[in-house]
Write a structure and sequence with these properties.
rod-shaped; 62 residues; 2 helices; single chain; mainly alpha
Length: 62
């Protein structure tokens, strides 16, 4: 019994030294974000035949 009563405080002391430590630090270099993005798109327009004929006949509309 005496042994157990002596080992308990010693075990508590040893286990208290094993607590995890969390550290948050800012980076020494600035964070860079590369925003070079190439965007390509195509626009397809479907036109009625009447409107298409009008655009062919009167090309000065636009």
């Amino acid at each position: 019994m005496k042994r157990i009563s002596l080992l308990m405080p010693a075990a508590a002391l040893l286990l208290s030294g094993c607590t995890p430590r969390i550290e948050i630090a800012a980076p020494k270099e600035p964070i860079t974000i590369n925003m070079n993005v190439k965007i390509e798109h195509e626009i397809h327009i479907k036109v009625d035949k009447d409107v298409e004929a009008l655009l062919k006949n009167q090309s000065d509309l636009f």
